[in-house]
């Protein structure tokens, strides 16, 4: 028997959030949350539930929304969609693209929800994984060379920025691309999903363009998945900012297709 939109939303809410949906979802906000966000957005097939979680976590962490952040961190961990190692790596990646102050709060929430989940299960949290050794070169020159190579590969362009200032040298080449993007805790697709969401909510025109382009050009995110990312982003950070992201996705899709056609 075909289910109603409300029934589908309630079922999807329980599956995504790993708790029972709120009772009496009759006001406009609750109805929109159940009938649209969960019934129509989370249930769409092109982007997996796990992938949608990375976009959502970036949005709620950036929005300074403590309750939604707590709920989505808890749900991602409890469902098993994201491991604690992946969640902590998500915080680090988020810190680079959204700022350390917001990431500090995100990190606190992750610890709180992880400990709460372990307590619910009657378990002690396992010891934290060792941070060292680093996966990248420790020699400064080799590290910068690696950062330059990583920058070119990840951004799908033939050049890297100069080393002549602290931002690009010590920041972008040494840490962001010399280490962070290369860490093993997350895959390239997950990092791209987080990054696109982060640059989108900050109205960063060049980073939005470059990261959407690179995600599509690399094939890490398909054209269809990128369109779904925009919808998920709209649900959790608003249609106004998502409108520009959607515009850029259309432009960069045409760019990638044109380059593919030109190359034969």
Automatic annotation (TrEMBL):
Residues 29-105, 168-243 form the Carboxymuconolactone decarboxylase-like domain. GO terms for molecular function: peroxiredoxin activity. Pfam families: CMD. Coiled coil: none annotated. InterPro entries: 4CMD/NDH-1_regulator, AhpD-like, CMD-like. This is Carboxymuconolactone decarboxylase.
